[in-house]
Write a structure and sequence with these properties.
The chain is mainly α. It has 3 helices and no strands. The longest helix is centred in the middle third of the chain and has 11 residues.
Amino acid sequence: MHIHSFVDTPIIKEQIESGSMNPVFEMTPLGRPARVEEISDVILFLSSPMSSYMCGAALVVDGGFTV
């Protein structure tokens, strides 16, 4: 897997900082937005040899929102 780019989303950042996303976060078991490290660790795992035996899997990194 190759990661070619990163898309910054300033609109979402503004919504998080203003508190307008709080109702969405309250619906998740973790009750907060993801930290950068929590997402980057998944990307690191997928781009490393540690994921070499994975085939056709979907990793959901959403704080339990879809559970």
